[in-house]
Amino acid sequence: MKHILTTTMIVLFAISPFISNAQQPDLFAADSTNKTQTKITIATFKNTRLINGHSVETLGAGIMDFRIHHRFGFLNQGLYDFFGLDNATTFLGFDYGITNRLTVGISRSGYLKQMEGFAKYRLLRQSTGKVNMPVSVTFQASVINKTADITSSVTNLKYNSSEKTAYTYQFLIARKLSEGASLQIMPTLVHYNLAPNTTSSNDYYSLGFGGRQKISKRISINAEYYYQFNKIDNTYFNSLAVGVDIETGGHVFQLHFTNSTGMTEPTFIHETTGDWGKGEVHFGFNVSRVFVIKKPKEFRN
Amino acid sequence: MKKIIFIAFVLFTLTASAQKMYQTRTGKIKFYSSTPVENIEAINTQVNSRITDNGQVAFILLIRGFVFKNALMQEHFNENYMDSEKYPKAGFTGMITDLKTIDFTKDGIYKTTVKGDLEIHGVKKNITAPATIEISGGKLSAKSVFKVTITDFGIKGNYIGEKIAKEIELTVDCKYE
Predict the structure, then answer these.
(1) Residues on chain B touching A63 (C-beta within 8 angstroms)
(2) Cβ separation of B75 and A290 shorter than 8 Å?
(3) Do A21 and B54 lie within an 8 Å CB cutoff?
(4) How far is CA A128 from each of CA A55, A125, A174, A233, rounded to the nearest angstrom?
(5) At the N or C end, where does chain A have fewer CB atoms within 10 A?
(6) pLDDT, tens digit, for every residue of B111-120?
(7) Annotated domain spans of chain B
(8) Which candidate from A26, A292, A299 shows the least CB-CB separation from B58?
(9) Phi, psi of B176, rounded to the nearest 5 degrees
């Protein structure tokens, strides 16, 4: 009996290294640390702009985005104006990501010769895991100045610079519902330094709705609509835009149809004159090209 | 009799658990893709790795932990190529093939090979990679450079073979405690 036991012991000792060598045990089997991590949702939208307005997306730290936006003339102008393609309004902008959450930008647009500056900050990021956050929230504030000469119809005098300045404040609230679908709402306040006409208010409220649906890894269909709670006057329409985003490596091309001529918040939300019903629709595009200005810390040494 | 069985059992468990484990949570894995059009590089500095002195080797990392120079490229890497939502992790489990040549108690640089399963994008593949293990003052560091063919792991995308090389070079550099 004793003999058998000793033999068993010896055999066990002899084979023990082989037992541990024969299999490839998972050295992390006992770990569950990864489960408690927070997973932040990325790529709710392909670009920092939905179409005319902003999306919740901000640029990565140290990234510059050079933007060219174009709106051609109204489609209903017919063959004489080549369905609007003879006329174009241009917007040139530079955005820069100071941190992963904070983006600032400046732009110039041909429409009313506007200068614009904005800052947007990502307050909340949609996430799952340890921190469960159902939505992403970004706050965006911008200022525009119409440098074009505009004469008052009442006094016949030119407005001064301050009178042609307007501010926009908006919360962008978005949820990525699935890999392909995202929705966004945008409660917005636009303040004009000078009330646009004698009987109207300085402050205008609107609520934007937007969304995207990916149709392939690189292409998505986007839509954006702003409902105005109060209007400057009844000649202005709500802004509606539909388009596609096509992403090709470093570029994002956004092609769309919109009834808005302006490409800054006050001008496209509250100063849209185009009527979709009459074919007063622009074909337009945005091109976004990113450049790395400052490398991430992992690449600095 | 019971006593003997008990001693045998204790001794047996001791032998099995006597292995020394070296580990790190801040290991580095870099990948490099080189084509005439563009060179792409990304670094993950939060690699979880363990090595035992009986030759077991394991790595695990989050795909989302790879940092690119260009944040947009990083997004495309996760969204368009790695499907990191679906396959958040990549890992390796394997063995040092010629364990006898390494003396974990003695300082030195040991060249060896590691064989095991590399899992990327939900696809497991058996690989063999050269490795250099350095023992210095009881601490262990490991380095390895090897290539993988990304299409072997079911990774698809428009630019593979054009802007992205079919074969990607992986560089492992881990310092263990």
Answers:
(1) 70-72
(2) no
(3) yes
(4) 21, 10, 15, 45
(5) C
(6) 999 999 999 9
(7) 20-176
(8) A26
(9) -100, 155
- ipTM surpassing 0.90, yes or no? no
State whether residue A87 is helix, strand or coil.
coil
Residue B55 has which token pair?
């030759």
Annotation: CATH topology of B20-176: Lipocalin (2.40.128)
The answer to whether the CB atoms of B69 and A61 lie below 8 A apart is no
Which of A28, A99, A218 is best to mutate for the B interface (most B CBs within 10 A)? A28
The pLDDT tens digits of the residues spanning A37-90 come to 788 999 999 999 999 999 999 999 999 999 999 999 898 877 777 777 777 899
Domains of chain A in sequence order: 59-299 (2.40.160.40)
List the one residue out of A2, A8, A21 whose CA is nearest residue B9: A8
- A66 to chain B nearest CA, in Å? 14
Cα dihedral: A81, A84, A85, A91 (round 10): 140
pLDDT higher than threshold 60 for residue B14: no
C-alpha span between A42 and A126 (Å, rounded): 8
Q: Does the pLDDT at position B153 exceed 90?
A: yes
Bridge partners (DSSP) of residue A39 are: A128
Identify the CA nearest to A197 among candidates A233, A244, A242, A230: A233
